[in-house]
Specification:
The structure holds two protein chains of two kinds. Chain A is an alpha/beta fold. Chain A has a single domain, classed as TIM Barrel (Alpha-Beta Barrel). Chain A is built from twelve helices and nine strands. In chain A, strand 8, helix 10 and strand 9 form a beta-alpha-beta unit. The radius of gyration of chain A is 17 Å and the shape is globular. The two termini of chain A are 24 Å apart. A six-stranded mixed beta sheet of chain B has the order 3-4-14-9-10-13, with helices on both faces. Chain B has a four-stranded parallel beta sheet with strand order 7-6-5-8, sandwiched between helices. Chain B has a two-stranded antiparallel sheet with strand order 1-2. In chain B, helix 4 packs parallel to helix 5. The N terminus of chain B is likely disordered. Classes of the chains: A alpha/beta, B alpha/beta. At the A-B interface, helix 5 and strand 6 of A face helix 1, helix 8 and strand 11 of B. The complex binds pyridoxal-5'-phosphate. Pyridoxal-5'-phosphate binds next to helix 5, helix 11 and helix 15 of chain B. The site of pyridoxal-5'-phosphate (PLP) has 22 residues of chain B, from helix 5, helix 11 and helix 15.
Chain lengths: 267, 404
Amino acid sequence: MNRIDNTFEKMKEKGEKALVGFVSAGDPGYEDSLAIVTAMCKAGLDILELGIPFSDPTADGPVIQRSSQRALKAGMNVSKALTMTQKIRGITDIPIILFSYYNPILAYGNAQFYKDALENGADGLLVVDLPTEESAEMTDEWAGSELSLVRLIAPTTPVNRMRMITQEASGFLYLISKTGVTGSDGIDTADIETHVKILRSVTALPICVGFGISTADHVKAVAAAADGIVIGSAFERTIEENLQHPDLPGLLEEKVRGFKAATRISP
Amino acid sequence: MYGIDALDQKQYPDQRGHFGPYGGRYVGETLMPALLELEEAYRKNIADPDFQKELHDLLRDYTGRPTPLFHAKTLSEKAGGAAIWLKREDLAHTGAHKINNTLGQTLMAKWMGKKKVIAETGAGQHGVATATTAALFGMECKVFMGTEDIERQAPNVRRMRLLGAEVVPVSSGTGTLKDAMNEAMRYWVGAVADTFYVIGSVAGPHPYPAMVRDFQRVIGDEARDQVQAFAGRLPDMLIACVGGGSNAMGLFYPFLNDPVEMVGVEAAGRGIETGKHAATLSAGTVGVLHGAKSYVLQDDEGQILEAHSISAGLDYPGVGPEHSQFKDFKRARYMSITDDQALEAFQTLSRLEGIIPALESSHALAQAMIEAGKMAPNKIIVVNLSGRGDKDMGIVGKHINLES
Ligand SMILES: Cc1ncc(COP(=O)(O)O)c(C=O)c1O
């Protein structure tokens, strides 16, 4: 069984929901970023979403825009993110999902990316601006289907479209909690429950919910409905606000522990 | 009637919005349903005689179409060759071709029941045009504009505010058109339920490149009739500046199947060799920006580069996907003109013909003088004078002495 399926299987057994953590690779620098991710994995992160920064992130709010800029300025790129993936794979067994926009991957080469992502220990890829209608041009160049292409479902996605998207999906589905960019604050729990319910009616794949989830209370509320909770901007904000802190990895570790505890709901 | 054909499926784009390898819809899932809804409304309304009539009447009575085609005799003489005719989009209401598109899109928004519109702008001409048609239809309007452009196109900022629009400053990146478009897309993701995004060029995700082309082709349709009425034949060459590419595509498209040479003129800024330019087709590579695959200015790692041009409307590292296809098929030739050459043409047209052109259009004029000089006097060039230059007086005053 692959790492992603394995993780959700384990979650079910333990009566927990998966904590999915996003950080930009290379923010604020390569070594610091590696230390941060390592600390987050040790603290109990279930799935890592590692962002490969893009200069024009149109789906992201100011926090992740700035984190992408810091990472780019420090020299991050696709090759370095893959090297970093290999380092992380050396210290943890949790699934690693690479996250980016299409242009950096296209520039690297779709076939090469597939090969190198797998070789360096990645499990999946999420390309935020590559909807189902366009993704075949990328996957047609892949030499296999071992890398899971994670699909997004939005609150604006009608049910017949959900059906079309989920047919091609593997791993898990990423349900966007609200219309808006990443980091827009606050969540509407009832709304999320409704969308999760509709999505469950068309797929058996695990559902992770993200965008705007920033507190342990949010996590608890979403955990009641979803199989996983994605947190990104809240981690990035901690990084941004503590760039000079002597123990940045320690701060992130603490954050992960707090969120992780909130995913442990009794069934 | 001004001809706006329904999407012709025998031609490009194809069903999925691709112009060969270019175009498409590279956007987040949140926007996909809105783009599909827009595509459906577009196909339906554009084929509706009532929609066509409402648009046609507005183009005539509100915009002042048809715009004239003017034989610039002194300019032609100075160039020393072919006859240069100017398609006077500078005389369209608000002073540029942009209004053709915003009238069409704002009317589309009205027919779709949307009461709020947003737009990005570089030179401010598209922002002004959107603020104008939003005022006409009583719609709420927000215009995203880079802080650098707010400074260099100050008169247009005041015009937008007077027209009732909110100008939202965008300071990310270089504070120019690319960043304004990023921010407009971000805002749209959050407001997609009730807001129509009026994109200002033949760029962005499908159906925008096709829709904007079809709203701008009125330029070429008119010019084709006018030149035939004056000269009894088709022109030999069409020349237009290319930022995103809408005024160029608007002029070119109706001549697609005619034996007429097409020349698109990009901004070479301080010179292509300096790296400080906006010559996307001349010096870029294929990538994905703002929802479409096309030529873009980018580094080896797929990060978008900053563009540079003295003219805010051409200061963009992307270009409409159909132009990329035209380039590959060699249906059009893409050249570039530097800041200095454009400034020179700006002054030349002002002095010789009494017409102050937009800095964007000055790029097309500079190229036209070069081309005309190489052609026989019986040849005809139609240049798209895409806008007037009043908005540029501030920036031009920094380069040439207008104080004494
Ligand atoms: C007068 C004028 N011409 C040309 C352009 C460039 O746009 P496009 O290439 O879409 O015609 C602009 C853009 O602001 C403009 O204001």
